[in-house]
Amino acid sequence: MKFERRVRVGIRLKLFGFLLPIAFLLVGSVTWTVTEVTKDTLRRDLLQRGAAISRVVALSAGHSLLANDPLGLDRLVSETKASDPDIAFVSIRDTSDIVVAHDRVTERGKPFRPVPPLLSRGTFGDTRADEVNRDGRRIIEYTSPISFAGRRVGIASLGLSMEGLATAQRSIQQRIFAAAAVILVAAFFGTMLLSSFITTPVKRLHQGVLSLAGSETFQPVAARSSDELGALTRNFNRMAEVNIAQKTALQKKAVQLEEAYISMVRVIAASLDARDPYTMGHSTRVARMACALGRCLEMDEAELSNLEREAIFHDIGKIQTPDDVLLKGERLSRAEEEQMKSHAVDGTEILRMAPFLQRYIPVVRAHHEWYNGEGYPDGIKGDEIPLHAQLIALADAFDAMTTDRPYRQALSTEEAIDEILQFRGTQFAPELADAFAKMMREMPPMDETVLKSMAL
Ligand SMILES: [Fe+2]
Known about the structure:
Layout: H1 11-66, H2 70-83, E1 87-94, E2 99-102, E3 119-124, E4 127-134, E5 137-148, E6 151-161, H3 163-214, H4 228-275, H5 282-296, H6 301-313, H7 323-326, H8 334-341, H9 343-352, H10 361-365, H11 387-401, H12 413-422, H13 430-442, H14 448-455
Antiparallel strand pairs: 1-2, 1-6, 3-4, 4-5, 5-6
Helix pairs in contact: 1-2, 1-3, 3-4, 5-6, 5-11, 5-13, 5-14, 11-12, 12-13
This protein binds fe (ii) ion (FE2).
Fe (ii) ion binds at residues 314-315, 343, 367-368, 396.
């Protein structure tokens, strides 16, 4: 089963992509609302402040205006102007709209210059507020009637600059934006922290699944939390332990099954050797010699084990060869020879029946191939022939030559070695034939009794 090791878009990124815009949207909307409410409050404060000052001027001016006290009126306008830097002008005029007092002396005695209102800012009691453009400045102009003893005696006008309001609004806006920026940074890191908090256990689980898939042992995943993710992790650990136990049991069963198959084939191979008294113990002797040569070539134990099984199985196809061909006491006819040769292919068909034995097929099929390509069944040559098949071919040939046959006497070890060497470069790879000859000359003679018992 193939496990996906990498994910394109992780949960952390998804959470980040989902939570961060929400946080930004929330902070943005709160910032906008607070800014607008604050601006409105400041504007309302300014309007009320101006209206209050204008009314105070109108109330204070009544007596002086009626009593024709220009000094009192001048003091009133100059003190009012000085009381607040946002006041643009203060003017008092009589009922004929002639300015009788003004913070700018040059305006005194002149008719009041009305300007058209740009925007009405409402009324506060008897005071009206309009936004106007006077002398190139945007101001709020308040107009309050001056009454004394129930009689209207004049009008007080007061201009309040809007620059102060704008400055105050900018200042408060900057402070709100600074606070919003701090909250956004906190939201960014908070989102990262939250994503990490949620995804870390999921990542551990993912690593646990991968480690479970890729190894025989399992390291339990740490489960620190007591929430759903913690419970999921603990359940995963239990499931993994069960899985590992079942996997181990299955592997054990598989090995036992393979061993059972191999034992069965060993018995078949031994029975086969026993069909012909002349080949009794043949497979076992071939296996012994092939493995001895494998050791000379520094093969490891696992490879030698495979080689030994391949050698035991190499003639298993002969089970399909009829007795009158297999046990014929004289030279075989052409047709019988072909029948005999078919054992290499028949062997592969037998091994194909069991999945565990299929890995031995290439060597069993090729054990009669020749180095020069003149062998059978496929006519492959040189390095195309599996190395194990070449070792078995040497041992097979040697054992056939050193065993009595009905039609000839067994050769001695030295004679058989000479024969092998005569076929170096044709039937056998030269370096393998040389190694085999060297080994056989140094190997102690085999005990037939031991070999026969080994065969069974
Ligand atoms: Fe054979």
